[in-house]
Amino acid sequence: MSATDDSVDTGVVTAPGAATKAIRAARPSRRTVETDLGRKRRARRIGRLLTEAHPDAHCELDHSGPLQLAVATILSAQCTDQRVNEVTPKLFRRYPTAADYAGADRAEMEELIRPTGFFRNKTNSLINLGQQLVERYDGQVPGRLVDLVTLPGIGRKTANVILGNAFGVPGITVDTHFQRLMHRWELTAETDPVKIEHAVGALFERRDWTMLSHRVIFHGRRVCHARKPACGACTLASVCPSYGTGPTEAAPAAKLLKGPRARELAVQAGVDPDLVPPTAVVSDTP
Ligand code: SF4
């Protein structure tokens, strides 16, 4: 029996009331200064709640091996992972090695990756990446941050994605979702991605960094949206200083949940899953 089945009959909230008041009472106050220890404890609690909320968290770019992940990550700039995943099967078949990217016909590659947007720039990056890998790394993607960031199209964020998911080296991926949620949770006030990476890294065990990144990004895509976060259907409400940024009523909040586990997320937050519209479950997460 799933968590959904377990919880449907009990603890369901269809309207604001006692639960909302309890959350307001329990969540951290913006008026009191939080100690470093207090912040670390709250961060760890957030980490545990994210683990429960997103057991399906993973790298959403389909890939097999470091080269495919590097290519998919370059294509994901300004594009949804779903769109990238529609394009990459054919691309990966056509260009199985770094040498294949190095020697690619530009027009043919542009046509293949056109749906991901900025296809001319991305084609340049992919061909240059292939050339650099052949010339400097014997056609293999290197497994060190210092080497990865010297490659075309690969910045620190992409390098951490590759290290964490293709090499098993713990890394924190500071993308737009990660940055927004760290600020909403007031785990850091830093705005520079590298400083955010270090500040948040100090709050969590190193071995948890990669999965933490996936879970935070999942939460940002499915619950804590940039414009209208689903506060009233969020399991982190009791530890979030930004509770109330989005609607706190169950019905409007449930409508904001997204992704294949939207109904389960509602149940975990004590909200009637029938308030989640069917379209939420199949929606494209940004
Ligand atoms: S959805 Fe609301 S309560 Fe949940 S993490 Fe985001 S701002 Fe906080």
Automatic annotation (TrEMBL):
Metal-binding in keyword set: yes
This protein's name: Endonuclease III
Lineage: Bacteria, Bacillati, Actinomycetota, Actinomycetes, Micromonosporales
Originating species: Plantactinospora soyae
Catalysed reactions, semicolon-separated: 2'-deoxyribonucleotide-(2'-deoxyribose 5'-phosphate)-2'-deoxyribonucleotide-DNA = a 3'-end 2'-deoxyribonucleotide-(2,3-dehydro-2,3-deoxyribose 5'-phosphate)-DNA + a 5'-end 5'-phospho-2'-deoxyribonucleoside-DNA + H(+)
Function: DNA repair enzyme that has both DNA N-glycosylase activity and AP-lyase activity. The DNA N-glycosylase activity releases various damaged pyrimidines from DNA by cleaving the N-glycosidic bond, leaving an AP (apurinic/apyrimidinic) site. The AP-lyase activity cleaves the phosphodiester bond 3' to the AP site by a beta-elimination, leaving a 3'-terminal unsaturated sugar and a product with a terminal 5'-phosphate.
Keywords: 4Fe-4S, DNA damage, DNA repair, DNA-binding, Endonuclease, Glycosidase, Hydrolase, Iron, Iron-sulfur, Lyase, Metal-binding, Nuclease
GO biological process, one term: base-excision repair, AP site formation
One GO MF term: DNA N-glycosylase activity
